[in-house]
Sequence to fold (157 residues):
Amino acid sequence: MNETSATTGVVVTPVSRCEYTAAFLLLRLFLGLRTLIEAIHKFESSGTYSTANYTKNMTRMAEGITGASFLPLWATKPYALVLGYVLAILGTALLLGVKTRTTLILSGLVYLSLSFGLMTVQESEGVAWLGMYVLMFVVALVLVRNDRFSVWPDKFN
Fold:
């Protein structure tokens, strides 16, 4: 069914609900995979994955941020030590569709906090990449009402 705009005379074809649902599903799956893979990479060192590697990697990251910015080690180290676990939980929740709206908001805030850390060390390219992810979370939040494939949906969808 096509509609004609009264002011411009242009024929407008409404996008079907199915297309919005597919768009949201693709975006949710991409963001979930990206978040989960980011978490898994934090456990890697020399091709092996372990919690010992994670602690070493994240301590090094916290010390690097502290050394290159105004952020103190007492703030960066606890953040870094929980970051991988938070990313793993949020990535898995996004993939499964567990409380999607809440998970998208929390994930977006994590990526925003990562952007802040990179801003403090003046890593402009990383900030730009993370900004794109934050934008994707914003778009996903706009489309979340079209979430039809969730294990545990938000009650407001």
